[in-house]
Design goal:
The protein is mainly α. It has 15 helices and six strands.
Length: 349
């Protein structure tokens, strides 16, 4: 292992590993300080060799992040890739200059704590999911031996409020959307199917079977197929869009371009309709709430929403008051048949 001064003024260590000559910066411009680093570098290289970490593994988290983003862009949905980019904007200042192999569980826990002081728990959890997946992939690629984030628990998040439209709010919102026919079609389809935003914007004509009156979603949040029936009210809307179709995706601008500015248009329509504290995702809540209030059983609602865990669907069960009353009446009737009202009759004042 030899020490050389490079043209940028820094001292580099030259060494041979796996039959190849390699060069590694000490980060020092002073030779005395660089000599002190040589022993440390040699021990680290020997440790990495013993652990089976490849010689060409990225040294810093920042270098690895660039490699990971290339993987994310090639293998994930565009929405997931953009989420990784957003999270890394927050993660890199904390870990960018650190050596990937030297990041500890404690380092990541400190990042989680600091992040939770600035943002909502759900946002901090999304950043932590990115770190965990990155470290898992680093293990898969033999860059590190174990995932230091594996045992870190998610922050507790309060259950999100279940906001749904009243019938009057729904009618006002649809009226305000009608000035923009494509926005109206998107909102109406969401109300009739309960589809998520990403599912709607990624919906293609291949996903729709007009003969069977069904939509087959292949790219769901849970990576499972989901079939959604097309209602009597939705069918003519989709048929009209099909006649006017300009491309493979269902919801596009009249000139065929992707419909990209609908979020701002949706917010404007909500404001004009007097619908406050309402997100686009709440259209999905509205769909589910209307089903429950119409007497549809909770298992069917779960299937239509594509929930893996019925606990997610049970948040709507409180809306089924008529069924609770019906159950109480049935119980009371049964008791009465058994003569149990005699106690009440005998104690009348």
């Amino acid at each position: 292992m030899k020490l050389y001064r490079y043209t940028n003024g820094r001292w580099y260590v030259r060494y041979t590993r796996n039959g190849k000559r390699r060069m590694l910066s000490t980060g020092e411009t002073d030779k005395t300080q660089a000599l002190l680093k040589v022993g440390e570098i040699q021990r680290r290289i020997e440790n990495e060799t013993a652990q089976g970490i490849p010689a060409d593994a990225p040294r810093t988290f920042a270098a690895y992040a660039n490699e990971y983003l290339e993987y994310s862009k090639a293998h994930k949905k565009i929405s997931s890739f953009r989420r990784d980019e957003t999270s890394l904007n927050q993660i890199l200042p904390a870990f960018g200059d650190m050596k990937l192999s030297e990041i500890t569980t404690r380092d990541i826990e400190q990042f989680q704590t600091q992040r939770s002081l600035k943002v909502a728990p759900a946002t901090a959890n999304r950043d932590m999911e990115t770190i965990k997946h990155m470290m898992n992939k680093a293990v898969d690629w033999n860059y590190i031996k174990a995932n230091p984030a594996r045992q870190i628990k998610r922050l507790r998040t309060p259950p999100p409020p279940t906001r749904f439209l009243s019938c009057e709010e729904r009618d006002r919102l649809l009226f305000e959307c009608s000035a923009n026919p494509m926005l109206w079609a998107i909102v109406f389809t969401a109300l009739e199917t309960g589809m998520r935003r990403g599912e709607l914007m990624g919906l293609t004509w291949k996903d729709i079977n007009f003969e069977r009156r069904s939509i087959l979603l292949m790219r769901t949040k849970n990576n499972e197929q989901r079939m959604i029936p097309i209602s009597d009210k939705l069918l003519p809307v989709l048929e009209r869009l099909n006649i006017e179709r300009k491309g493979q995706t269902v919801f596009r601008k009249p000139d065929g371009r992707p419909y990209g500015n609908w979020r701002k248009a949706f917010e404007t329509a909500c404001n004009r309709a007097g619908v406050v504290d309402f997100r686009f995702h709440d259209l999905r809540h509205t769909f589910a709430s209307y089903l429950v209030m119409a007497g549809v059983d909770i298992r069917t609602v779960q299937e239509l929403l594509g929930h893996k865990d019925i606990k997610m669907t049970l948040r709507y069960s409180h809306l089924s008051r008529p069924h609770l009353l019906d159950a109480v009446n049935k119980g009371g009737t049964n008791l009465a048949h058994k003569g149990n009202t005699a106690v009440f009759e005998s104690n009348k004042l």
